[in-house]
Amino acid sequence: MDDDRELEAIKARVQEMEEEAEKLKQLQSEVDKQMMPNSSASSPGAPSTYLTIEQKVEADARSIYVGNVDYSSTAEELEQHFHGCGGVNRVTILCDKFTGHPKGFAYIEFSDKDSVVTAMALDESLFRGRQIKVMPKRTNQPGLSTTNRGGRRGRGRVAMFGGFGRGAIGFRGGLRGRAFFGFRGARRPYFYPY
């Protein structure tokens, strides 16, 4: 008799949990619909959390990078400084993710591409006592680096030995005529005669 009551209570609790799970699924689908509106319904300048690559490239083509921004600047002040260039959709001041302090640069997205050309005239203008740098925003592509930091540091054969300066062990004139054991790639030993 006691076992039957426990079994019925467990079944009732499982039923409640299944109903709650179904409600959560419905709520999640409603939130997803609100977060990703139809592309025909959304305006081209409307911010969205999920952008396709094409949308990101198009938004970046309407955006500028502003460097040497005063750390106590606000988005409203930056928008006011660039208001003569055209309609501003968004001002983003980048902050350090650990401290929350501004990094000293910002991105401004305009409503049209012509505003970017107009904003370039404000390069080296004074904003809050600082000479700001204004450049068109570039689009970063995942997995591609535009810098020269692809694993090689230093010059010559120095890169294989941890970046020592000229004349250090492993440089072209370093151990001429002697055997040298070093490491390359995934720390596998190799024989390197000079």
UniProtKB/TrEMBL annotation:
Span of domain RRM: 62-139
Annotated InterPro entries: Nucleotide-bd_a/b_plait_sf, RBD_domain_sf, RRM_dom
GO cellular component, one term: cytoplasm
Keywords tagged on the record: Coiled coil, Cytoplasm, RNA-binding
Coiled coil: 7-34
GO function term, MF aspect, one: poly(A) binding
Highest taxon, organism lineage: Eukaryota
Family annotation (CDD domains): RRM_II_PABPN1
Pfam families in alphabetical order: RRM_1 (PF00076)
Main localization (coarse): cytoplasm
Keyword Coiled coil: yes
Protein's name according to its UniProt entry: RRM domain-containing protein
